[in-house]
Amino acid sequence: MKHRIKPLEQEENELKESLKDEDSNQTCDCKNHTDRTQDDNCDCHDNKNCKESCNCDDECDCGCGHNECKCECNDNEYSKEEEYLNMARVIQADFDNFRKKSYEQMALAKQEGEIQAIEVFLPAIDAFSEAKKVITDEKILAGVEMIEKKIFEALKILGVEKIEAVGKKFDHNYHNAIAVINDNSLDDDVVQTEYQAGYKFKDKVIRYSQVIVNKKEEK
Question: What residues does each domain of the chain span?
Answer without folding.
Answer: 44-73
